[in-house]
Amino acid sequence: MAHVSSQLGSTPEDSDSPANARGGTDDTGYDEGEDLLNALLATLAEAHTQAAVLAMGQNGVLEPVPESLDLHGHRVATVPIGSSALDLVTPECKARVIEAWERLRLGSHSRVKVRLLEDPRFLVTLDYFDTRRAFGLYIAVGSGTGLAEDEQTLGTTVPDLAPRFARELKDELALILKVDEAFTQILGWSPEEVVGKRSLEFIHPDDQELALANWTDLLAAEGPGRRVRLRHLHRDGSWVWVEVTNHNLFDDPNYGCVVAEMVDISDEMATHEALRAREQLLDRVAESVPVGLLEVGADSRVVYTNDRFHFMIGIDRTEDVMEQLASVVEDDRKLVQDALETVFGNGVDAYVEVRVTQPGGRDGDVHYCSLNMRALTDKAGGVTGAIVCVENVTETVKTREELRAQATVDSVTRCYNRASTMSALEAMLSSDDQRGRPAVIFVDLDRFNEVNDALGHAAGDEFLKVVAERLHRGVRGEDVVGRIGSDEFLVLCPGMSSPAEAMRTASRLAESLHDPIRLNGDPIPSRASIGVAWSRSPDTTVRKLVSEADAAMYASKRVGSGKPVLFSEPDPNTESTRSERWSALSENAY
Predict the structure, then answer these.
(1) Number of CB atoms found within 10 A of residue 6's CB
(2) What is the tally of helices (H) and strands (E) in the chain?
C-alpha cells in the first residue's frame, strides 16, 4: 500500500514522533485496538462465521496474520502477501479506504464500507485496528454479505468510539489553517468555525500564558514537537483537557506550517482532579482532627505530618522519624523504637505513652503523649509504613495517678495505706534480695487519743502528719512507711542483713518521735511503742511477720520506755490477745 502513503503524504506519524510511539495506546500502555478487535471477533463468532482477517504493516502492505492472534474460529483472507487493501476494492471505494487508513493512524479503530473487486454486488464492512503494541501490525476484519443495491449489511458491529487524537495546522501567527474530522468530533467546532482564527482564542484564560510560552519555544527551533497540557474550549461552552504537541515543520516542503497533534486527556485529568480533591479533603480532615498525625515509611522516613503534631512535639519537619521525635524524653525513646520495630517487623499495631519535653518550657517541664501506631500494608499484606496518632494525655495521666494514689496512699499522712502496705511487704518477702531479709517495724503512738479528745480531730491529723514526716526522714529511700490504723504505722525495711541492723533503724525512729510536736505554738508530748520483727526464714508470711512485730510492740508498750523491742518467742498467756489483734488488723488488708 505504498501508494496510499504517497497520497496521504509524509506525516509526523511516519517519524519517531510521539503520536507514532503511542501506536493506538494511551500513556498507561492500554491497547484499545487489541481490546476492540477481540470484542469484534468474539461477537462475530456467534453471528457470522465468514469474517476474514487481514494483517498490514506500517506502509499498508499485507503481511501474514500473526499466529498468536486468536481468530475465534474465523478465517484468514486468501489474498496475496505484498498486495494492499486497495487491490481488493472497486475503484470508487479506494478513496474511502485511504480515508479510513488515515483515521486509523489518528486513533485505534476505524471503519469503512466497500465493494469488493471480485464481486461488486456485495458490500463488505472493513474494521481497521491499531494493534502494533501487541503484534507489530495493523489488523483488518472484513465482514458482511448483503447486496450492494439494498445497502444490506451485517448488523453485528462494535460500538463506535469517540476519537482521542486530532490534528490542526497553524501558520507562524498561530492562525488555524486546517483541522481534521477528529477535531470536530472531540471539540464540536466545524472547520468553517475555526479556520482563520488564532488558536489562543480557544484556550482557557488561565492556560494562555503556558500556551504562549510553548509557542515561543516552538518558533525558536524546528523539529520535534513540544508538549503542553491545557484546556480547549468546546463548542458547547465547556472546557476539554487536551495535550498538544506542536511540530515546527515550516521548513518541510510537504507542510510549511505547524502541525499540532491533540490528544483528548479529559478522562485522565478528571481522574487527577478527583484524586486532588480527595487529597485536599484528606488534608483538611488531617488538619482539623484533634490529634497529631505522623506517617512513616518502611525506611523510617517521615512521609507526612500535620500542624497539630508539630504543636505537641515542638520540632519542625525532619526526614528521620527518631529525629522527628527527639523531644521525647531520652529514657522513653527505646519504647518508641521497640514499638516501631513491632509495627514494621510484624505488622502488629502498637501503643505507647511517653514523656515529651514541653515546647518552649523550661528544662524538666514535660507533658505526656500517647503514640498509637497502625501498620500500613499493600495488597499482598506487606508493611509499607505506619501511621502514628499522637495525643496529649497529660491530664489523663494526672487523673490516673491521682486515682492510683487514692487507692495506694493514706489521704492524711501520704503514707501507704493498709492494703498497699501489705502488698509491698508480700513483694519484699517474695524477692531474692542478696543483701538480707525484710524487717518490719511496728509503731504505735502512745496516748494519741488524748490529743484528739483535747484538741480535736484536725489537730490530731496535724499531729499524725508530723509523725509521718519524722518516720520518712528516719528511713532509707527504699523503705516503705505505711499507716495501718488510727495511730499505728508499719515501717517495711527490705534487705536487712540482721536483726541488729533493723533495731538500729527502729532506735533512730524512736528517738525522732520522743521530741514534742508543736501544734499552734504549743508543745505536745510525743512517744511511741515500737516492735521489730525480722524474717529469718524464706518461708515467712506477711501474716506471721506482722504478727511478730505486733507482739514485740506490745512488749514495748508494757515496758513503757518508748524504746523498740525485738520479737522473741511469745508468752503462751498472750497468744490469744495477739491473734485477736491480727484478725482485726488484717481485715480488708488485701
Answers:
(1) 9
(2) 19, 23
* Domain spans of the chain, in order of start: 2-150, 165-270, 289-397, 409-586
| Superfamily designation of domain 165-270 | PAS domain (3.30.450.20)
Torsion region of 578: left, alpha or beta (phi above 0 gives left; psi -120 to 50 gives alpha):
alpha
Whole-prediction pTM:
0.45
In 279-319 the beta strands, taken as DSSP E runs, fall at 292-297, 302-305
Q: One-letter amino acid identity for 499?
A: P
Domain 409-586: assigned CATH number: 3.30.70.270
Q: What is the DSSP letter of 518?
A: E
pLDDT tens readout for residues 339-371:
999 999 888 999 999 999 876 655 558 899 999
pLDDT digits (tens, 9 = 90+) for 62-81: 889 888 888 887 888 888 88
Q: Do domains 165-270 and 289-397 have the same CATH topology?
A: yes
Q: Please name the residues in contact with 583: beta carbons below 8 A apart, sequence gap of 6 or more.
A: none
DSSP symbol at 15: T
Measured distance CA(176)–CA(195) in Å, rounded: 5
d(CA 338, CA 319): 19
DSSP 487: S
Cell of 525: 508530748
Whole-angstrom distance, CA of residue 239 vs CA of residue 204: 8
Q: In what order do the strands lie in the sheet with 176-179?
A: 176-179, 165-170, 257-264, 239-249, 223-233
Q: In what order do the strands lie in the sheet with 528-534?
A: 480-483, 488-496, 437-445, 528-534, 565-566
Cα dist. 568→35, 416, 532 in Å?
Answer: 100, 27, 10
- Cα Rg, the chain, nearest whole Å: 47
CATH class in words for 2-150: alpha beta
147: its cell numbers? 447486496
CATH level 2 (architecture), domain 289-397: 2-Layer Sandwich (3.30)
Q: At residue 499, what are phi and psi to the nearest 5 degrees? A: -60, -30
Neighbouring residues of 377: CB distance < 8 A, sequence distance ≥ 6: 347, 383, 384
> pLDDT-based confidence at 571, cuts 50/70/90?
low
The answer to whether the CB of 167 falls within 8 A of the CB of 260 is yes
Assign 576 a pLDDT band (cuts: 50, 70, 90): very low
